[in-house]
Structures are given as C-alpha cells and as structure tokens.
Amino acid sequence: MPHDIDASFLAIPLRRLADAALQRARDFNVEHADFRLERLRSQSIRLRDGALEGSHDGEDLGFAVRVILDGTWGFAASVELSAEAAIRTTEEAIRVAQVSSAISSERIELAPEPVYDDVRWMSAYSIDPLSVPLSDKVERLADWSHRLLGHETVSHVSAALQQVVENKFYADLAGTVTTQQRVRLQPDLTAHGTDEATGRFDSMRTIAPPVGRGWEYLVDGRDWDRELEEIPDLLAEKLAAKSVDAGVLDLVVDPSNLWLVIHESIGHATELDRALGYEANYAGTSFATWDQLGTLTYGSPVMHVTGDRTVEHGLSTIGYDDEGVQSQSWDIIKDGVLVGYQLDRRMAQMQGLGRSNGCAFADSPGHIPIQRMANVSLQPAENGPSTEDLIGQVEDGLYVVGDRSWSIDMQRFNFQFTGQRFFRIRQGKLEGQVRDVAYQSSTTDFWGSMEAVGGPETWVLGGAFNCGKAQPGQVAPVSHGCPSALFRGVRILNTQAEAGR
Amino acid sequence: MTGNSPQELVERALQASTADGCVVLVDASTSANLRWANNTLTTNGMMQGSEVTVISTVDGGQGVASSALTRSASTVEEVQALVEAADAAAREAGPAEDAAPLIEGGDDPTWDDEPASTSITVFDTFAPALGEAFGRARSDDRLLYGYVEHTVGTVYLGSSSGLRRRHAQPTGHVGITGKSGDLTRSAWVGQSTRDFSDVDALGLDSELERRLGWAKETVALPADRYDTILPPAAVADLLIYAYWTSAARDAYEGQTVYSKTGGGTRVGERLAKAGVNVYSDPAYPGLQCTPFVTAAASSSVSSVFDNGLALEHTDWIHDGTLTSLAQTRHSAELTGLPVTPAIDNLVMKVDGASGSIDDLIAGVERGLLLTCLWYIREVDPQTLLLTGLTRDGVYLVENGEVTGAVNNFRFNESPIDLLERFTAVAQTEASFSREWGDYFPRTATPALRVPDFNMSTVSQAL
User: How many CB pairs under 8 A join A and B?
Assistant: First the structure.
C-alpha cells in the first residue's frame, strides 16, 4: 500500500489538542477521559438520464471529549480546533456528567485494554476517490447511464456515487494514541421502465455492493460491462413477468440479497446493547437475550456466523475502535447456536466478559461512541455446493437476487424482504422471473430452515453505508459476507394482493 | 482563537468569491440530549456546530455550472479556503440542468441578530422530574427507556444577488418507552416541543402507567383485516413517507404513486376522500419552520439555485384532490406545474372533523387501537404499499372501551389508499411520529379509523 495518512489531517495539531483536553480532565480526577478528533470528507454525485443532477462535497471536522466522572458519563463536542476550545469542551463534558449523576444509578466502568502508544492504521485501497476529478467520475457514470438508456425498455436511469474518506485520531488518559484512515464508496445505477400495455412500472438496480475500496473499484474492481449489459434485459423480463402465487416455496438466496437478511436478523439481534435494553426506545431490543448465550438454537447446524472488524475491504473494518480497542474477529453463532455478542468496553466489563471485541463507533466527531455493528458474516461450507448445485436441489421454489425492501420487528423476529429479481425454480432449473414477490418469516424459523450453504466460490462481501441506530441518530457503514444458501418452506406473499389489488 | 460571527462568515465568503454567483449558508447549532434505559441515564451530550455551505455558480458559455461544498467551519480563514475550493469546483463542473438566476432580495429584519442557542440546562426542570419518574417506576416494577433532545439551529443565508436571510429553529422532542418489570408489556408516549416548557415528565410517566395497565389483560389475535384506530402519531408515521415520495420529477418520470398511467403526474386527480386536506405552512402555529429554501445540494426535490426562495402555505392535497408535488424551479418547468418546494412541516386536516381519539374509540364495537408504527419501508412504489410493524401497544377495543392488549402485527398498507378508506376522523392535533419524528418532528395529524387495516402477519415482538 503506497499511502500514508493524509498530510493535511496530520497537519492538525492533534496531540496538542488532545493534551489540552486530557490534562483538563485530569484536573477533575476523572476515572477515564478520551479525546477523539475526526475528519470525514465525502462527495456524493447524482446523475439522471446521464446528466449531472447534483453533486455535493462535505467535510465534517471536529472533536469530542468523553469522561467518566464518579461513575457517570459526560460527553461534549466542538468544531473549534484550538487548545482553548479543547479545554472548554472538556469542562462542558464534566458539567454534563455532573448534571447527569443525579439520575444515573449504574456505575460506568470500562473493560481493560492494552495501551497502544502512537499506532497508525490505513485501509486497503489504491486510489483516493476524492483525488479523482469530478469530471472523470461524471463521465464514467454518464457513459454507464447511456449504455442502459440505449435499450428500448429503459425509459430513465438514475446513477449515484457516494465516497467517503474518514480520518480518526484517538487519545486517552491510559496512553493509547491511534491515527487512522479509511476509504469507502458506493455506486448505484437503476434502470426504470414501464410496460405500456398494463401501465406497470418497475426498476432494476445494479447489485454491486458498497466496498471499503477506492476509485479502482469503478475502474477494474468488477465486471461492470457484464452487469450493465444484463440490466435492460432483466428489466424487460421483470416487466413482462407473471405475478407470483402466494404460498410456501423453497428459496435459494443469492449473497446479493442474503447479506441484508443477515444484517437485520443476526447483526442487530446480536448487539449486546440491544439485548440489554439500551435501544428499547428506538432501534429496539433482541429476542437473543443474554440468558440464552451458549444455548439458543439460532438456526440449523450448518450455520456459522462470525463478527469481525478485520476483513479486507470491509466497511466496518478498522485497526482500533473508538475506545482504543484493537479490532478482532470472533464467533457469534457456531453450529447453529448463539455463542457471542458484539461489545464495547463498558458492556464487556459489566457482563464479566473480560475484553471488549472492539465494536465502539461514532459516526461523526459530534456523536458519542456506542456499540455498532461489526462485519457479521455467514461462513461458506468448505467444498460446499455452487449456486447452480443449490438450485438443482429445489423442485419448486425461487432464486432471489439483489436487495430491495426490508423490514423487521423491534425484537428481530418477524421480517419481510423483497428483492431486485425473483426467478422461478422448477425441477432444479431456473424458469424466468416472477414479480410482486415478498418473502416473510421469523428469524429462528428462517435460519432453522437453512438446509445448505454454498461453497467459498459463492461467497460475496455485501453491505450498506446507511445502518441507522441510536438517539441522536447515527449512521454506520457495515459489510456482511455470505455464500448462496438454500432454505426450505418459506412463506411467499404477493404484494399486489397485500395492497388489496 | 474563537470563531467569527455567522454574518461575518457570510460577508467575507461573498467578498472572497471570484465566481459569477455565490450563495453562502451558515448553520450555527447547539444541541443537548439525555438518553436513558432501565431507569438510569445511559448517554448524554452537548454539541456545538458551525457548518458552512458555499455554492458557486459559473457561466461557462455552454450553460451555468454549480458546485456545492459544506464544511465544519467557524473562522474567516476556513471559510475563505472553502470559497476557493467551491469556485474551483464550479469551474470544473459541466452545465447544471437546474441552472436558474439566483433569488434576489434584501435583508431580513433579524439578520444582525446573534445565533439562538440552547444548553444542557434546558433540562433543568425535566431531569429532576425524570429522576422522580425513575423512582416511581422502580417502586412499581416498571422500566423506563427514553430520550430527550433539544437543538437550536440558526441558518444565515447570503447571496451575491443581495439576499440576507436568517431563521432560528428550535427543535425538541421526547420519547419514552415503559415496560413491565418482566418485559412482557410495553407502551410508548412521545411529543414534539420547541422549548421543553410543555413537557411534563411525570404526566408522560402516568400515561405509560395507564397504558401498561390496559395490557394486564392480553388477547392473541391472528393476522386479518381489522377495524383499526390509528392515533395521530401513527398517521404521521405513514403520511410523512407519502410526503417524502412526492417529488414532482420522480412522478413525472413514471416512478411513484403520483405518476399518471401513460405519462405525467396525477396532479388534479382525486386521491383521497372529499374533505381531506394535506398541506405545509412555515407559519403553522407551533410547527413554525424555515420560511425559505435552504438547499446544500441539488436533487429531484431541491436545487441549489433556489436557495432563499420564499415558502408559503402549500396545499398538497386539497378537498381530496392532489394539487401539488414537491418542486424545484427546474422540475416545475419540466412538469408545467407551479413552483411548490418542499417545506419542513406537514399538516393533515379533514373538513368537518370533530372530537378526539376517545370519540373514535367510543364508536368501535370490536377493533384495534394502535400506539405507533415502526420499521416502515416501501414494498411497491406504484401503489405506495408500505410494510412495517405495530409497536409498543396494540389495544383491543370492545363496545367503545379498551379491554386489553393484543399481540403486535406486521402490516402491508398504502397511506394513499387509507386516505380513501377511512370511515371516521378526529380533530387535527400536534403529533410526533415514532418512526420519523427524530428527523421530521413538525407534524399535525388527526386520529383515523380504518375499517379494514391489513395486518398481514403476527409479530412475536413484545
């Protein structure tokens, strides 16, 4: 990797600001204090029918001080980069802790973590997307849009590209100092069309996942030509497809759809803060309660799910979390049984788990770190079947590709998903698309019905930029890897019938 | 080193710009919050921010190009660097489709005023009362979870075309979930507020206690279509989504429920029952919001060229007929419809509506009373079919009275269809959406009775 951390970030007096804040915190005899300075540079580009609709460049730069004073959190943030502001913000955090102590009955303590003195970490990428001229990016997206518009089925095309370069500097009273940089981007192209005879409109989107990579992803990171070539025909087939019959069918779910089911039904359900009730007023709780750790049958024995913040190009991947914990990987579900949670230092200490597994994250300098999602991934079967082999095992079913609509309840039981495209499977063969499909199940029923997972060659790292949680709301990027997988007897809804049509 | 005043940042940025046109937006904000779970505080915070957006426009001969850059900035030096970058970006960009002359005008009378602000002391009355509620909950074997936030943002908008506009926006909300000690019963209350003077922590706790009391009797019901009362919060949950998908250009290009079969939009078509009105008004009492366009980027519902455009009462649906869609000047030209930009509040009122939700309940022989909806996502854009869950209290109504609680459900419904199918409606009141309120807190909606609400499957969630 030829890069170093961006010089303009290193030119900020990071140490001086941190020292000012931490020294002021020391004056109050706090049990803990950390200083986190972040710079998030971003650019979003949107095209419509090949013409630039809008672009926006953002830079969020600021710092936060978090203290534990007499067992109570205090947090304050500012955008003014001066030693005076660092001191003032620390005093503000102290005041917030003092105001809060009267209504806090749990004593905050943090799990121990080794000290990392002045470590640096960079994500794996080749070309900083923000260094590429806007005109080059617009030209590429316009070219792709025009390729789609060239097909008679496609009436309109929307294209978007989100890019982020994230820098984090962290220093705490224990002596850990980390400086990090990571890059991510998310391209999307959607073709829209209308069936003139029926008036039905629909769309078909690329299934290229967002990735922790640079501009090279759009240059040669994927077989873009093939994907773009297929989209108009897939849209035409979908517009002409027969409406699905509601009922119960077997499903082969492609990684481009399954990642989102993993995110919703496993990723969020195994966040310990949810299981302990901290999100009860907002994101919700979890059926996978603490007392079931080690015993809950989550799914079939072929189910092996890991958490990590280490996989290359993962959106949650980083060197050290926002509490100075080195990133790790661990088992969450093994042989179908719940064996682990995602943690931060406070919960690891409270539940007697020893060390945190490094899931503390704040989405911006102005927000407090909370436990956020690791890359939660379903492992493939060694020498496991190909997607075609899985389809071959289905007599009457659907092959599901690409994510679209998703919704799950506040305890992560009942979910309903749609997709970009659903292909009918009969006697082990694909028979073209059907439309108006949603599938609905409950988490342990669904994962319990997983008969087989595909081999490593079917495994894809999917993910999202926009996972929401917490109050005030925070948005986190996260990846989920998975193979194709076979599920027996899943409930299929017809969305036209659901709408009373 | 302390920051410069917002007005100074605006003026110096405009002076520094070498582009043909320039718009500067300074958003100075302060925000305080408290969050709690299991009858104790969990996190808190006090944030101060200053965000500057510079939009430069350059006439490159083949059309006007624009750039839009936003940075955290509080000093003249930072803003000058930002202007330089914005000017350079505009020179690099191709012609903008939405290019239009910048909005002209003069100074708002409040232009010279300092930014309004808040601090953690805004909770000086609320926090001790919350502490008392924790004590009550502990002794009654109940658990409280919740969040309060107060944010005051002041936006300053200046342009090379002479505009100097200022708006101070206080925004606050409270949401509390109450659970029985064994976690089998759950209830929720929420409200929007401008200054917390109208938030009564103990009163909210009493309402939670009452609702948890309703749930002492429980009845398991299967998926079905039910006679259902949606309280104002649940109506806001659904209506906000219908509003967010109302971009005129998306409709015109055949992508939304507001698209006309065969092309064009459904403006002029009857979408809802006669008497149904849905509108936005920046001056609506209690829901006052920014009375001019602020756009940090161009999209299907916003144009950077429209910054500063005055906003006024806009009917989206009037007497059941779709009258307007969210527009930019560019999309208005494209669709041949009036310029009606999106506004940051939403009101639904039905002609002749009277009474409260209690009157609706009194009229139900056997049906459901909801608390709020959750995890609402679009299933089919053409019908605007949405899916989601009931949350924190579905109550059984028998012979006009609440007699117990029912399990949660997943619903599949279109808000547009509901505006046609409801059979009873209460008076409009201030509401707070559970699903979207953190991002869209200014709504006023009535309670609605829908005779056949589609509860598609049962959710085991408590």
Answer: 285
pLDDT by residue (tens digit) across B266-324? Answer: 999 999 999 999 999 999 999 999 999 999 999 999 999 999 999 999 999 999 999 99
> pLDDT-derived band of residue A3, with 50, 70 and 90 as boundaries?
confident
Same domain? For B81 and B223 the reply is: no
Whether residue B123 sits in one domain with residue B185: yes
At residue A38, what are phi and psi to the nearest 5 degrees? -130, 150
Q: B435: closest CA among B230, B285, B269?
A: B230
The tally of domains found in chain B comes to: 2
Of the candidates B191, B196, B195, the residue with the CA atom closest to the CA atom of residue B233: B191
Mutation target vs B (from A8, A43, A55; most B CBs, 10 A cutoff) = A55
Closest C-alpha among A54, A11, A73, A3 to residue B99: A54
Domain contains B110: yes
Are A192 and B388 within 8 A, CB to CB?
no
Domain region containing B380: 214-239+352-459
| Burial letters A289-304, b for 16+ CB under 10 A, else e | beeebeebbbbbebbb
ipTM of the complex: 0.96
Show the beta-strand stretches assigned E in B306-427. Answer: 314-318, 321-322, 346-350, 366-380, 385-398, 401-406, 408-413, 424-425
The answer on B141 and B59 residing in a single domain is yes
User: In chain A, which among 465-484 make CB contacts under 8 A with chain B?
Assistant: 471-473
For the domain that residue B203 is a member of, what is the CATH number? 3.30.2290.10
Looking at the structure, do residues B179 and B62 belong to the same domain, yes or no? Answer: yes
CATH 3.30.930.10 fits A7-240, yes or no: no
User: Directed axis angle between helix B76-92 and helix B6-16, to 10°?
Assistant: 40
Task: Count other Cβ atoms within 10 Å, centred on residue A351.
Answer: 16
Does the pLDDT value for residue A242 go beyond 90? yes
Contacts of B255 in chain A (CB under 8 A): 156, 192, 201, 203
| Pick among B385, B418, B436, B438 to test the A interface (most A CBs inside 10 A) | B385
Are B222 and B101 in the same domain? Answer: no
E strands of B127-195, at which residues?
142-159, 164-180, 186-193
Sequence letter at residue A462: G
Quick check: A182 pLDDT over 60? yes
CA B285 to chain centre: 16
* Boundaries of every domain in chain A: 7-240, 243-498
pTM score over 0.90: yes
